[in-house]
Amino acid sequence: MQQSLQPFQEQRQQAWRVFFAPTILVEGSFRELLIRCGKSNCHCQNEPAHPVSRLSHWEHGKLKNKVVRVADKQRIKSLSDNYKNHKRSLSQLLKVNKKEHQLLKKVIKLKSVPYE
Ligand SMILES: [Zn+2]
Predict the structure, then answer these.
(1) Is the pLDDT assigned to residue 4 strictly greater than 70?
(2) What integer best gives the mean pLDDT of the chain?
């Protein structure tokens, strides 16, 4: 029993470690893409050609996009990566809790004696 719970504790600790780390984050996912500028005789009319960095996140059910200034690019990308790690750890915790819950329910069954 003790042994089969061990992986849960480790996975939980791993997830918590991310939250305890003194990192800062920015909510949203960082993306680099090519866009069209809209000028009538620009080469980008055939194919989007102007690089732009965006930070997108959901707010009240709507996807909000913010343009990331070139000077902020590296910093925002890294803060967004931190955000991604936190979200990943959070869903890792949920998964672990769910598995643990199922296992503990089985334990209840195994420990129960029938009463006739
Ligand atoms: Zn253009």
Answers:
(1) no
(2) 92
Nearest CA to 12 out of 91, 103, 82, 102 is that of 91
What spacing in Å lies between the alpha carbon of 27 and ligand 1's midpoint? 29
pLDDT digits (tens, 9 = 90+) for 34-63: 999 999 999 999 999 999 999 999 999 999
Ligand 1 centroid–CA 16 distance in Å is 46
30 neighbors 55 (Cβ within 8 angstroms): yes
Q: Ligand 1 centre from 96 Cα, in Å?
A: 48
Cα distances (Å, whole numbers) of residue 9 to 22, 54, 88, 92, 93: 22, 37, 17, 12, 10
Ligand 1 center from residue 113 Cα (angstroms) = 75
Predicted confidence (pLDDT) at residue 19 exceeds the cutoff of 80: yes
